[in-house]
Amino acid sequence: MLDIPLNIGTLVAIHKQELDPIMEDLRKNGFVTIGPRYQDDGIVYREIEGLKDLPRGVASDQAPGTYRVHQSGKDRYFDFIPGNHSWKQFLFPPRKNLFSVEKGEREQKGRFDYFAIENTEPIPHFAFIGVRACELAAIGIQDQVFMRSDFYDPVYKSRRENLFIIAVNCLDPDSTCFCASMGTGPRVESGFDLCITELDNTFLVEIGSELGRSLISARTHSLPSAYMQAEAEKAISAAARSITRALNTEDLPGILADNLDSDHWIEIGKRCLSCASCTLVCPTCFCWDALEKPYLTGKLTHRERAWDSCFNPSYSYVFGGNTRPNIHSRYRQWLTHKLGTWKDQFGTLGCVGCGRCITWCPASIDITEEAAVIRREAGK
């Protein structure tokens, strides 16, 4: 048997069944293993235990306003493109109790005492199974939002610091994907503990961290042959070539900023429902609101953070009126922030080309087409 030195960057081959004990080892070390499941005619991210929970032999077909899954006839676990779920929901929860305020039992001099109660829920340690390159890029963008040098969000930071990632190279992009033009896929480059490329009977696994190395060292593994590596490279290259939808990002922030009065915004507003679906499925959007949730007894109130959206009319309401009172102004805010001013804030665009906003828009509005119209009107 070959003595294989395992280092960060080492590529090994494992039988697919070895993923089960890897996930078992993660759970023994306190991780909650989260991965894709086939549920309600779609792919969702839920807690999983092993290969039996993965959507084996399932592929997906996406188009503007359309998402379908079907049996592929192949014995593979990662042939699908994710549905409306993103990993954001675990690091930046849709609803999170921040603290509570309890009313005292006794009235003193006409006033009650109130006591603040800190939320002491244990910090979950997640292991994400099957993270695509575009999704890794989205996590990196949210890192910039929630873990800035001058401010960090304690909920996000505590979950992110304890995160284990098994990434997967995307081999079957759908028609709404445009990650290649955004430089975010389909090949996984960095930011993972382990990265899988799935062949018919084998997982090729690249080691990305010391924890990943320790998990692989405990499992049966071998060096991949030249044929295996060539097949993996051929599949990744073919996936990149199959992506035909694209977004031209050259000077895009400047073009959008110079064309805020374009009539095309009004045309989009006639189609847009302002339903906020695009922001909810987007893996990078981060708008939120703080809400009070009082008990009917009047003795306890929770302070809760909840996802919000710039498409929500009340989101842009300030004293005296609404700064974005119509749909076209709210769509313009979303698109010009995502593809423009986001770069001024965080040094990168806020889009990773996953295509979720196109697939899950009930009006079939395509962000790549709308940006292209603005560019053409600007003569660029």
Give an overview in words.
- The protein is an alpha+beta fold and 380 residues long.
- It folds into two domains: 11-95 and 120-242, no CATH class; 252-287 and 310-377, no CATH class.
- Helix content is 31%, strand content 25%.
- The strands form four sheets. The protein has a seven-stranded mixed beta sheet, sandwiched between helices.
- α9 (264-271) crosses α11 (327-346).
- The longest helix has 20 residues, at 327-346.
- It is globular, with a radius of gyration of 23 Å.
- The N and C termini lie far apart (60 Å).
- The model has no long low-confidence stretch (mean pLDDT 93).
Helix content: 25-40%
- The DSSP helix count reads 13
Task: Give the low-pLDDT segments.
Answer: none
Question: Which class best fits the helix and strand makeup?
Answer: alpha+beta
Mean pLDDT: 93
DSSP strand (E) fraction? Answer: 15-25%
Helix-strand sequence: EHEEEEHEEEHHEHEEHHHHHEEEEHHH
Tell me the domain tally.
2
Note the overall shape. Answer: globular
Task: Draw up the topology in text.
Elements: E1 11-15, H1 19-28, E2 32-39, E3 42-47, E4 58-63, E5 66-71, H2 88-91, E6 95-108, E7 111-118, E8 126-131, H3 133-146, H4 154-161, E9 164-168, H5 179-182, E10 194-198, E11 202-207, H6 210-217, H7 226-242, H8 252-257, H9 264-271, H10 277-281, E12 288-294, E13 300-307, E14 317-318, E15 321-322, H11 327-346, H12 356-359, H13 367-377
Parallel strand pairs: 2-8, 8-9, 9-10
Antiparallel strand pairs: 1-11, 2-3, 4-5, 6-7, 6-13, 10-11, 12-13, 14-15
